[in-house]
């Protein structure tokens, strides 16, 4: 290969994103609890809309997503003109990085923040700046201290993945108010729907011109396989992102399923209440087995073990029983395992298995 054909600066710094595993060699009855997917799947309305979309596969989709933006706006009380839709919220995050950061600029996120933030910083040649958290909770003071005149983007997920913790509205407001001129605060609300009554940060977007919110259909809506997300910001930022958005980024099927999903509030309600109930149950069951976790606001818990070796051994023990959870050493949490809240039988299976592991039952 010619030495002169080289990628842009930063690209070779990227460590490939690791998705959650879904198979165990030699085990058939597998439960996947590694990707924070909705155990009940997509709602019936979304599935039906997806099926109906098969009749129009030869037609180009709308480029403006007007119907989906209207449905999201009506559901969340937001201005549809200030919504942008993407191929997952990952694409919206990518558009933000592409539009606002480049070589010489700094992109700030936290030590246990979502993996995409660092990847995106490198992808656009910007400098990633990783900030300490306080006991697995976003530390606003530390973020503000890390900001410089070169800071362009500050990414925080609230609730955060993989910690499950979140910070309150006053903290978010203090962060937004303290950012340097020219820096945009991105509130990643991938798990917002799991927090009863939470707006994902929309009020902060309304209150200031330096806050942006992203949301997804991949988690509570159970549509991770279809790849739909959206963002909400000032008209200025939305207009910028629309210049770099591919005109046909969302397919007809994605748009149709998402519209149906937004309006299927019963599916969201049921998913949220079952998640809350089983999350509390699982956290307590694990605590009784000597495995603590922080109070989670999302659809997973972060189980803490004595050290990295014990976490890895427990992961292997679970895997042998067909239970796939997530190692999070890549998030600077080598002594932890992230466990998605599955349906009730899955939660019982994982609690039972961890109990056996802690009791010294041989693998
Ligand atoms: C799952 C997740 C996303 C969602 O990504 P999509 O591209 O919308 O599937 C975004 N942010 C965080 C923190 C997540 O955990």
TrEMBL record:
It catalyses: L-histidinol phosphate + 2-oxoglutarate = 3-(imidazol-4-yl)-2-oxopropyl phosphate + L-glutamate. SUPFAM superfamilies: PLP-dependent transferases. NCBIfam families: hisC (TIGR01141). It comes from the Bacteria. Keywords: Amino-acid biosynthesis, Aminotransferase, Histidine biosynthesis, Pyridoxal phosphate, Transferase. This is Histidinol-phosphate aminotransferase. Belongs to the class-II pyridoxal-phosphate-dependent aminotransferase family. Histidinol-phosphate aminotransferase subfamily. Its cofactor is pyridoxal 5'-phosphate. Residues 29-354 form the Aminotransferase class I/classII large domain. One of its GO terms (biological process) is L-histidine biosynthetic process. Pathway: Amino-acid biosynthesis; L-histidine biosynthesis; L-histidine from 5-phospho-alpha-D-ribose 1-diphosphate: step 7/9. It comes from Pseudooceanicola albus. The gene is hisC. Signal peptide: none annotated. Homodimer. InterPro entries: Aminotransferase_I/II_large (IPR004839), HisP_aminotrans (IPR005861), HistidinolP_aminotransfase (IPR050106), PyrdxlP-dep_Trfase (IPR015424), PyrdxlP-dep_Trfase_major (IPR015421), PyrdxlP-dep_Trfase_small (IPR015422). The modification N6-(pyridoxal phosphate)lysine is found at residue 219. Its EC number is 2.6.1.9. HAMAP family: HisC_aminotrans_2. Pfam families: Aminotran_1_2.
